What we know:
Layout: H1 14-18, E1 24-28, E2 34-38, H2 48-52, E3 68-74, H3 77-82, H4 88-98, E4 102-108, E5 114-119, H5 125-128, H6 141-149, E6 155-158, H7 161-171, E7 178-183, H8 191-205, E8 209-216, E9 225-230, E10 235-238, H9 244-250, E11 274-278, E12 296-300, H10 303-311, E13 316-321, H11 323-326, H12 343-349, H13 355-366
Parallel strand pairs: 4-6, 6-7, 7-11
Antiparallel strand pairs: 1-2, 3-12, 3-13, 4-5, 8-9, 9-10, 11-12
The structure holds flavin-adenine dinucleotide.
Flavin-adenine dinucleotide (FAD) is lined by residues 83-90, 105-106, 114, 128-134, 136, 158-160, 183-186, 188, 276-278, 296, 330, 332.
Amino acid sequence: MPDLPKKQCTGCSACFGICPNGSIGMIADGEGFLYPAVDRAKCVGCRLCEDVCPVLRKPAAKDCQGTRVFAAWSLDGEVRRRSTSGGIFTELAKAVIGRGGYVAGARYDDAHLVGHRVIASEWDIPLLRQSKYVQSDMGAVFREVKELLEKGRPFLFAGCPCQVAGLLGFLGRDYDNLLLCDFICRGVNSPKAYKKYLESLEKQYRSKIRRVWFKNKTLGWNRFGTRIEFEDGTEYFADRDTDPFMRGYLNYNLYLRPSCSDCSFKGFPRHSDITLADFWGIRLRDGSVDEDGGTSLVMLHTQKGRELFESIRERIFQEEHTLGEALPFNQCAERSVLPGKYRDLFFREIDRSDFFELLHQIMEKSDGK
Ligand SMILES: Cc1cc2nc3c(=O)[nH]c(=O)nc-3n(C[C@H](O)[C@H](O)[C@H](O)COP(=O)(O)OP(=O)(O)OC[C@H]3O[C@@H](n4cnc5c(N)ncnc54)[C@H](O)[C@@H]3O)c2cc1C
């Protein structure tokens, strides 16, 4: 197991993937985050797990001197509406699958928990679409990516910056047919906190959840709407000021993974070919602003990234901008978010509390009521 302080481990699972005799398992801790655990009886001390750990041995980053920056969105209104930002991920995924390739990204399972999966059909792109504000379980996806890469077809891997670096560490080299896409990341939330939130909602609504949709644009891109649909046909909708889960994430920093508070993969240079994000604060060349439809910030770091973006030109609106226009509005590009004052209290109480009641108590304490 990598000799890494727990608070620096991102849970990328590269060590789990590389272990030649299955002596590493990924086990959830009391906060619900996955960490490697080694079976000493099986471990042969080969130290491959340390070689692939992207925190211990940072893989070579891309040369980002020539990074080009665009404001962009999909011209397909449904794709844009259903995506978190401007729907550029969907257009990139379509292009790769259209060339006979594969795409890996985060999807919900039947219990609405999040894990990485590989797809090869355009029909499956909606499964990967949209931000899921909880840490994605990587499972054995790195091994699958490697096997498929060796077939020589194009492969688009999308994930958090630490997952992209983890994949590069696991592979030990870049591949010509591999396109790496990360995003500006505020940090990933605890799967346990998220599960507790869903359980509280199911209790309140007395129905099982059918679908989770974060950053739903019913009230606009800026409002971070959360829409949850239940099997009995009812719906929950709340925005960034009223949904307790989003408030705990965005306002009170209650349940981010510890490594996200000192993230090793912020800023530049980056490990990806393309970085996607929200282009907050965008003012277009004609002086207009995004009327809340969602604008992607696209940063193209490499020739591979530029070629893929060029190939979707007909399907998108695009306008070139500068890093100087983009970064001031997106502090998470370069800075980690610190843990909130009541993070410890949250995790001390979560096992014996209802999510909504606990959040209510913490919000009252924080707001000095
Ligand atoms: C946890 C998280 C934090 C983020 N923080 C910021 C931020 O601070 N600032 C900012 O500008 N943008 C942030 N983003 C990115 C932003 O929300 C959009 O995902 C991005 O702009 C792409 O949008 P899109 O419309 O092109 O495609 P979408 O269809 O919305 O993008 C979906 C892509 O994100 C991947 N994805 C979704 N959830 C996860 C997950 N939990 N783990 C790994 N990959 C995932 C999917 O695999 C897919 O590739 C964050 C995203 C996530 C998941």
